[in-house]
Write a structure and sequence with these properties.
By secondary structure, this protein is of the alpha/beta class. The chain is built from 16 helices and 23 strands. Helix content is 38%, strand content 23%.
Length: 495
């Protein structure tokens, strides 16, 4: 059986004392295993990154950019191969895997243009004969800890900016679908990245804690659930590291009475059930404003759901694949089966649907008359479950979103520009869509939420990543005449 290796200092490494299984979610069969790095193995990866840092930091910006130009070309040329890896280990349909690669490419393209964003500032003659300039320098060794749901896009969110800024990286992908990260490391090497600049280690909490405790690691990027994000932020910052830890979400989609309900229904189905709901930007709460909107919208959603094909991701006719593990399937099904006891109306019960393929498939669920306080509303489900919370007014919808513990993304569907503009002003959420159900920013902007969806001060990728992965240094310089001599014990003044 295939053993997925670590990549340390440009070499594939195996021989761990512990390992874990990798399943094909569409069949439920184990297809490989992956070694779990212990503290000593993580130390090897960190040491390799630290050893590569001086040389990579000294590499010219144009040469760094050239690596990303070549990497982009390689990702385009081998996207089908990479998408197949993602589909096999994650379960998402092939088209969705290709879409993930496409969004990851945006970050590679952004990294290729970082020459401009890494420019400092210069002011001459701030005082007589005194000039001041600032520079942006890499923070050092960076740890990137990524989730299972986007095994290529999220690693590119982190590694592209971090490496382009002159840092070296230890990437710890999810142990559930780790092969994409190993493939990515190979493409980076083929693009000309020196050995040790990007290292990949696999494992569980022991590997994560080793990265959080390693003195050489200066910054940590994480995407995952809120409890783990909070724990990583707490431990990492206690060790003096910069940490950006993106947590969970409960994204609402508000549908106003003037909205195009057919477009809204299309968007709700796509955003709630795409990738089996295993997206931190999935719409999990539909908020129709007014009973008339709810009564008209729900049948449209149910009609579309009935036509969706759930199946093996490699089948081009499949629109939704399985969940990642049997345990996660059971957890998602538990939310659905318990919804009626909480007072919700189960319009479509996907937990009861059976599949001939085996694997970790689950059907699509639609729950109506959900209210805050119910588990299906309060907790992140991360599955193909859409809850409907009916409200009477725009103000009630805004209060619902703003009072939720999560604040990752939200969307409003309306034909009225004034309502949309007011929504942008009123809503307290990091990413907003106007007639766009999944408002993931393009690579030139940054991604991140508020409240319990983000721990740290910097959003991920885009301009904020430059701030996170660099430190500013300010130089004040004066070149006096050789014969000039002056002693002044006062505080320096620029007047």
């Amino acid at each position: 059986m295939t053993l997925v290796p670590h990549v340390i200092g440009g070499q594939e490494v195996t021989g761990d004392l512990r390992s874990g299984p990798i399943f094909n979610p569409a069949t439920g069969e184990q297809i490989a295993s992956v070694g779990f790095a212990d503290t000593a193995r993580v130390a090897e990866a960190v040491a390799a990154a630290a050893a590569a840092l001086p040389g990579w930091r000294a590499t010219g910006l144009i040469k760094r950019a050239d690596v990303f130009f070549r990497l982009r070309q390689l990702l385009v040329e081998r996207s089908d191969e990479l998408a197949s890896i993602v589909t096999t280990e994650h379960g998402k349909v092939f088209a969705d895997a290709l879409g993930e690669i496409s969004r990851g490419l945006e970050n590679v393209e952004f990294a290729a243009g970082l020459v401009h964003l890494l420019k400092g500032e210069y002011s001459e003659q701030v005082s007589r004969g005194v000039d001041v300039h600032s520079v942006k320098q890499p923070v050092g060794v960076v740890a990137a800890i990524t989730p299972f749901n986007f095994p290529i896009m999220v690693p590119l969110w982190m590694t592209a900016s971090a490496i382009a800024c002159g840092n070296t990286v230890v990437l710890k992908p999810s142990e559930k679908d780790p092969s994409a990260s190993v493939f990515l490391a190979k493409l980076f090497a083929e693009a000309g990245l020196p050995a040790g600049v990007l290292n990949v280690v696999h494992g569980d909490a022991e590997a994560v804690n080793a990265l959080l405790d390693a003195p050489e690691v200066k910054a940590v990027s994480f995407v995952g659930s809120t409890p783990i994000a909070k724990a990583i932020y707490t431990r990492g910052t206690a060790n003096g590291k910069r940490v950006q830890a993106l947590g969970g979400a409960k994204n609402h989609m508000i549908v106003m009475p003037d909205a195009d309900l057919d477009s809204a229904a299309d968007a709700a189905v796509s955003a709630a059930y795409g990738a089996a709901g295993e997206r931190c930007m999935a719409i999990s709460v539909l908020v129709p404003v007014g009973e008339a909107v709810a009564e008209a919208l729900l049948p449209k959603i149910a009609e579309r759901v009935a036509k969706l094909k759930i199946g093996v991701g490699s089948d081009p006719t499949s629109e939704m694949g399985p969940l990642i593990t049997a345990q996660h399937r059971a957890k998602v099904a538990g939310y659905v089966t318990g919804a009626a006891d909480e007072g919700a109306e189960v319009v479509i019960d996907g937990a009861l649907q059976e599949f001939s393929e085996g694997g970790f498939f689950i059907g699509i669920s639609l729950l109506d008359k959900v209210q805050p306080g119910m588990r299906v509303y309060d907790e992140e489900i991360f599955g193909p479950v859409l809850s409907v919370v009916r409200v009477a007014s725009y103000d009630e919808a805004v209060n619902l979103v703003n009072s939720n513990r999560y604040a990752n993304g939200t969307a409003i569907f309306t034909r009225d520009g004034r309502t949309a503009k007011q929504f942008e002003f009123d809503i307290e959420v990091g990413m907003i869509g106007v007639n766009v159900p999944i408002p993931v920013p393009v690579g030139a902007f940054s991604f991140g939420g508020w409240r319990d969806s983000l721990f740290g001060d910097s959003h991920i990728y885009g301009p904020e990543s430059v701030h996170f992965y660099t430190r500013s240094k300010v130089v004040t310089a004066r070149w006096p005449e050789p014969s000039e001599s002056q002693v002044d014990l006062g505080f320096p003044s620029n007047h």
